[in-house]
Each structure stands twice: as C-alpha cells, then as structure tokens.
Write a structure and sequence with these properties.
The complex is a heterodimer of chains A (228) and B (451). Chain A is an alpha/beta fold. Helices cover 40% and strands 23% of the residues of chain A. Chain A folds into 2 domains: 118 residues, Rossmann fold (3-Layer(aba) Sandwich); 102 residues, Orthogonal Bundle (Arc Repressor Mutant, subunit A), CATH 1.10.10.10. Chain A is built from 8 helices and 13 strands. In chain A, helix 2 packs parallel to helix 3. Chain B is an alpha+beta fold and 451 residues long. Chain B is 49% helix and 19% strand. The longest helix of chain B is centred in the N-terminal third of the chain and has 49 residues. Classes of the chains: A alpha/beta (228), B alpha+beta (451). The interface between A and B is medium-sized, with 19 and 23 residues.
Chain lengths: 228, 451
C-alpha cells in the first residue's frame, strides 16, 4: 500500500513515516503542500495522510486540488484544531476521515485500514473469500479457520491483491505499492515473495488463491468472494 | 498643497471663512453698482430738466442767442457753481454760455470732445478727464423769428464732486455694515460649531477617561447620531472584557488542572523507574482532554449584538455530509426536518461546535436512525437531535450536563464534547434538555433564544 504522508513538523513526520513503514506501508513524505501536490502528480497512491496546517500551500487547498484533479484515493485529515468547524472544513474539501492531534498510532492505523477497506468496496472489516478470510481490523488472515502468520509486507501484498480481486496486477504495480521509491525494481524479489505467500496460504496447493498470468502479472481469485 | 485640517470644527470654520467673505464681497459689489447706476440716472434726469428750462427761456434771432436771465437753476448764474450750460453751433462756435461758466476754460475738448450727437438724440456721459464732469448734450434745429432753421447744440456740464461724495459715503456705510455682518456671522458660526460639536468633544473626553480607567463604559447621554456608536462601543467593550475574563479563567483552570496529571507523571518517574505505558497513555490522554476542553471553551465566540443570523439548514447539511463520511461503516440514516429558511442568531463556528458534538454523540449511540429537527417559535428556536440508541437513563441526564463541573474531574475516556456544547449554549442563554426519543434512544433538545 503506497501512502503519501504530508506533515510539516519534521519530528512527527519522521516518527509517523517510520511507524507506518513498520506496519507495511510504502511511505512517501512531503513537508509542505507544494511538494505533496508534486508527489501526487508523479505517483499513484492508495492513501494519503494530510495535515491541515501546512506551509506554502495549506492542507485544505492540497485536498481540494487533489480532488479537482480526480485523484480518488482516500485521504485521512490530520488536524491540530479540534473544533467541528475545522473538521467539517477538511471533510467538505474532500477528506474522508479525520484524526485530531495528538493522536495514538493505533487510531491512525485503524482509520487507515477502514479507509482502505472502503476504497476497496468492502463494507465489513472482515473480507471473506471462501476458505480464506482477512480481518482488516485485527490484521489477521485465516485459512479454513486457522490463522496464518504473515509478515507486514506479505499481509499488505495480500490485501492489495484481495482489494482488486479478479483483476490482473502487474509486478511493477505491486512493487510500487509495496515498497519505497528507492527499492531496487529490477530484482525478482516479487516473484520470491509471491511464492512464499502462496506457500503460507496454501501449503497443499488446493486453493490456488494467487494465479500467475504469464507476461502480465498476478491475479487473486477465490470462489465465494465477498463480505463476511 | 495645503493639508486639510485634522479637526471637524476647523474644517467647518475654514469652509465658512472662505465662503462668507466671498458672498459678502459679491453682495457689496452688486449693491455698489446698483447705487451708482441709480445716482447717474437721477443726475441725467436732473440735467434733462435743466435742458428743458433752458429751451423754454431761449430766444434766437439774427443777432444771436439770448436766454432770459432769470430762468433755470440759480447755480447757472453763480460763478463756478459747478453747473454750467453752453450753447454752440455744431462746428463748435460759441453762441451762449451761462454766467456760472464765465472765465472758465471751455476748451473744445470739454464741449465737443467728439462730434455732437445727431439731431434729436440725447447724450449723457460721465467724463473721466482730469476734471470729471457729467455731460448732457442735445442737438436740435431751431427756427428763428425770421423763419430760418439754425442747428443748436446744448451742452450742460455738472461736476461729479457731489455724486462721488455721495457714492463714497454709501460705499463706506455699505462696507462697514457688511464687515460687521461678516464678523458677527463668523462669531455666531464659531459658537454654533462649538455648541454643535460639544457631544463629540465630550465623547473624546469620555473615551479618554475610559482609556485611563476612570470609567468602565461610555455614558448613555449622547445625541441620537452618536448614541448608537456609544452603545455599540459599550457592547464591544463588555464583550472584550468577558472574553478577557474567560481567557483568564481558562488559563487559571488549565494551569490548575494540568498539575494533577503532571504530578502523577513526576511521581512515576521518580526513583529512575520507567513509567508503564498504560499510565503514560492515561495521563497524556487526560492532559490532552484538559487542553482541548479549556481551549475550545476559550475560543467559543459567544453572543454579541453585531452577530448575524445563520441559516440552520445548510449547517446541518454540512455536518451530516461530514458524519456520513466519518461513520461510513455504520451508515446512520439521517432524517432532517429543518426549514430551508430557519435562522439562528449566533456565531457559525459555535453552532457547528454544538450541533457537531450532539450529532457525533448521536452517531456513536445510534443503531441506525438519527433525526434532526428545528422548530422556530416566538421566543425560542427548538432544535432536536434524536437517535435510536440505548438512550440516557433518567438518573444520568442531570449529571452529564451538570454545569460548572471542574474540568479536572473528568474521567478518562469521558468525552469533552457535551461539556463544551453546554458551555457554549450557556453563553448564549440557551438551554439543553435531555429526554427520551420516540425513536427509542436519547433526545437532546436545544432551546435557543429566537433570532
């Protein structure tokens, strides 16, 4: 999941970026509104976390501009001002949810999860695909009711594919949405990575949740796809 | 360029000082002109009479011209009297002269400086030579006793001394009176200005007293034009003072209430122990709540007279739009019964805060349904926020909106939203009533003073 983080306070930005990365997000950080708009025009994001009080171009303008440019990824608004007027302004400008500073990381993560799920078109926090269920609230994956241990990256990759179930996702796209900008894209890490994920999810190779479409990429497909 | 004076009285006085003399000078000039014209007219009339009496006493025969000695103005017979009469031929040849003019240099200049007037036409001039005369001339054709026609030119001269003297005395009087009038009017104007602008000076003095702290508000005794200014100023002052008090209280409360969690934190780090995360979390959360509560209370705008009316419907629509996003998973169903033109007198931000907090609570509490309604009455605007959640037990309704509850008595996890809303409502003289809704949950009713 590629995430755009816009926050002018450097300490907070670094901490937040680190923690989000630890939870499997590929994070691009911007310190002001102009940089944020530039990054958004260059890359394809799944999510954005935008502070309202930004230098150069303020947060509200950034959000409005993004929406005018038909960028539809979910936006979590960070605001230091807790009045409803400020929250309503952020949401009216095009934000999807808000968190008031000071916040706890768990809360931000929970909101981001909910936003991602919503943008994938799932109303319930538990995504169910036949024998395979993904609990986005608890970040838990089960096959036939048995929990499967996944790393944060593996979980994000599975979630990304599951949100686009039925669609073919290219290796490049998957790489871009999983890793930071400086990731070495020529490596075949993705193939190894997907192989490992398949083994963990389906050791007996009976489900085959992730299929390879030759020359094009991967497709997540399981019978009974839908909400729990 | 001259700088305009920085005082209303000076401006008005300067304007009248410029206009008044101009007006008086123009008046004086017209009056002087009119007087001179009328003086000349009457002089001409007088000389015409002299001319007619001369004509009546005239005898013309082959020997010459003769005038009966006792006719006309006696001045004509008195030497150098200032009134002279001469009869000549058109070419200038002297036929007769009044005794008064004997010995006088009746040079051609004086008599016929230019050609005599045509026959039958009267000419009257005020000469402007070294010795200024009024000159009346008339040419006529006289039939002698022998039956011959002889052209005769009558010239009557009168010195302008008397006329000028009269004119001079008139002008002196005129300017004296006009000057007096000017002085009087200016003095009156200054007095009027002083009197008329006295309330402004008083206002300035009162403001100065206000500044020096000698009085707390402006008195209510200004003329109708100034009173609204004073009243609004007083309201502004009062508001400002209330705000200042609120800030002071907020800071005092904040300082006081932050000390408890700080004390807990300090105790927990003493002895070099690293405090538990749960404890840190709890105390940080508590401090955050305290700051949030106090500062939101402080920035609430509160009521004031210059406040505009806010339309309720768009405000509610905005909030519902926002809550639909925030509570996307829950998807509460909102039903709104607020008339599009329902007004509310207050600060938009304060209204958003109150309604936002109530709706937020409703969204949290509801199962599915939330209803927002507003009914404008004569004295109150009633705003209802209802939900189909568990409701608020009757014995807790009082407690959760208790006023004056100390901020540091809030329990962790307890929201500050309702407390902030109650504070704002109180500042507007509005009330909050908690009851049961027909939907099955809680009903929060705001009684807002009607706009």
């Amino acid at each position: 999941m590629r995430l755009l983080l816009v926050e002018d306070e450097s300490k907070l930005r670094e901490q937040l970026a680190q923690q989000l990365q630890r939870h499997g997000y590929a994070v691009d950080s911007a310190a002001d509104g102009r940089e944020a708009l530039y990054l958004a025009s260059e890359f394809d994001y799944d999510l954005a976390v935008i502070d309202l009080g930004l230098p150069v171009v303020d947060g509200l303008t950034v959000i409005r501009t993004l929406r005018e440019q038909q960028r539809r990824f979910p936006i979590l608004v960070l605001t230091a001002r807790g009045r409803w007027q400020d929250k309503v302004e952020g949401l009216e400008a095009g934000g999807d949810d808000y968190v008031v500073k000071p916040f706890q990381l768990e809360e931000v993560l929970a909101r981001l999860n909910a936003l991602l799920r919503r943008s994938g078109g799932f109303a319930s926090p538990v995504l169910s695909f036949g024998a395979l269920t993904i609990d986005t609230a608890g970040q838990e994956v089960c096959v036939d009711g048995q929990p499967v241990e996944l790393t944060a990256y593996e979980y994000k990759a599975l979630l990304y594919l599951a949100h686009r179930h039925g669609q073919v996702i290219s290796k490049t796209e998957l790489t871009e949405h999983l890793y930071d900008q400086d990731f070495d894209r020529d490596s075949n890490v993705i193939e190894v990575f997907i192989g490992r994920l398949r083994k963990k999810l389906d050791p007996q190779q009976t489900l085959k949740p992730i299929s390879t479409v030759r020359g094009r990429g991967y497709r997540f497909e399981l019978a009974g796809a839908g909400d729990a | 360029m001259l700088k305009a004076p920085n005082s209303l009285a000076q401006r008005l006085l300067l304007a009248s000082l410029i206009c008044l003399p101009l007006y008086l000078a123009a008046t004086g000039w017209f009056l002087a002109q009119a007087f001179e014209t009328s003086q000349l007219d009457s002089a001409q009339e007088r000389m015409r009479v002299q001319f007619y009496s001369l004509v009546g006493a005239l005898e013309v025969n082959a020997d010459g011209v003769r005038v009966s000695p006792h006719t006309g103005d006696p001045r004509l017979r008195q030497l150098n009297s200032g009134l002279y009469a001469v009869i000549t031929k058109p070419q200038g040849e002297l036929l007769w002269q009044s005794p008064s003019s004997e010995g006088m240099d009746l040079s051609q200049n004086l008599l016929t400086a230019d050609d005599p007037p045509p026959t039958g036409v009267e000419r009257f001039q005020a000469l402007t030579d070294a010795t200024p005369f009024l000159r009346f001339q008339f040419q006529t054709t006289w039939e002698t006793e022998e039956g011959e026609d002889t052209p005769l030119v009558f010239t009557i001269l009168e010195t302008q001394t008397a006329l000028r003297a009269e004119l001079g005395s008139f002008l002196r009087q005129l300017w004296f009176w006009l000057g007096s009038a000017a002085l009087l009017l200016t003095a009156a104007q200054a007095a009027i200005l002083r009197w008329g602008l006295r309330p402004l000076r008083q206002l300035a003095l009162d403001l100065r007293d206000l500044e020096l702290g000698r009085r707390a508000a402006l008195p209510e005794r200004y003329p109708a034009e100034l009173q609204p200014l004073a009243t609004n100023l007083n309201q502004l002052l009062m508001r400002e003072q209330l705000q200042r008090e609120r800030y002071r209280n907020t800071l005092a409360d904040l300082a006081h209430s932050l000390k408890t969690p700080l004390a807990v934190l300090r105790q927990s780090v003493e002895g070099n122990a690293v405090p538990e995360r749960a404890l840190l979390d709890e105390q940080i959360g508590r401090m955050d709540q305290l700051i949030g509560y106090q500062l939101q209370r402080a920035v609430a705008s509160g009521p004031h007279n210059l406040q505009q009316r806010v339309l309720l419907a768009p405000l509610v629509a905005k909030l519902i739009n926002s809550f639909s996003k925030v509570y996307f998973d829950k998807q509460p169903q909102f039903s709104v019964q607020v008339a599009a033109d329902c007004p509310c007198r207050g600060d938009e931000s304060d209204l958003l805060e109150v309604l936002g907090n109530l709706l937020d609570n409703a969204c949290k509490a509801c199962r599915k349904k939330i209803s927002v309604g507003a009914a404008a009455g004569e004295r109150w605007l009633l705003i209802n926020v209802e939900d189909d959640g568990p409701g608020v037990p009757a014995d807790q309704r009082e407690r959760i909106q208790q006023r004056g509850q100390r901020a540091d008595s809030y329990q962790p996890g307890q929201g500050i939203g309702l407390a902030v809303a109650v504070d704002i409502l109180e500042s507007y003289g509005a009330e909050l009533d908690i009851g049961a809704s027909e939907l099955g949950g809680a009903r929060f009713t705001i009684r807002w003073p009607a706009a």
